[in-house]
Amino acid sequence: MSQELLAWRVALIVIILMGWMIAFSVALRLRGVNPNAVAERNTNWMQRLLIAGAGILDLYFVVRAPFPILDDFVAARASPAPWTALALLIFSSVIILASQTGMGRSWRVGVPGLENHVDALVVSGLNRFSRNPVYLGVMLFLIGGLLAAPGPLTAVAVIVSFVGLTIIIRQEERYLRRRFGAEYDAYARRVRRWI
Length: 195
Prior knowledge:
By secondary structure, this protein is an all-alpha fold. It has helices spanning 3-30, 45-63, 70-73, 82-103, 133-148, 152-180, 182-190. It has one domain (3-190): Up-down Bundle (Four Helix Bundle (Hemerythrin (Met), subunit A)), CATH 1.20.120.1630. Helices cover 65% and strands 0% of the residues.
């Protein structure tokens, strides 16, 4: 597969994934759920940094297809494994979409505050195998992005996201432990943090 074709396919995957996430958030709002704790300022700097970084990275993946000169600005090289990158991006997108769908009304962007609380602890679907399947999907997506456009931007995105998501996961665990107590503790004993 040519690098140009890979760039266009990556852009399409990102557009579909972002479109789904926006549509899912709108659907939750229509059902009376505010899924965006970040907009409510119920978040810390790390959550806002990761969301801003995701926006920049998504924009790069979409815009680099029609403007391949952007790769020169971010020192991205040709993909050493375009088919693997594409497969990983598709696989991780499915994990993200399935995880969000499975969480239903409990899905949030950011750690909820009291006024944005989660009604139910989700332990079914992909949450039977990982306590954080959305974040697992995000990390796999970022690794796919690194394979698709290897360079400093995508490498830093992987490293910063792993550190940031680990911090956020710990904050979410504290929230869930306060919110669900023994039910969450039993779940945490059964299911690992990542996989």
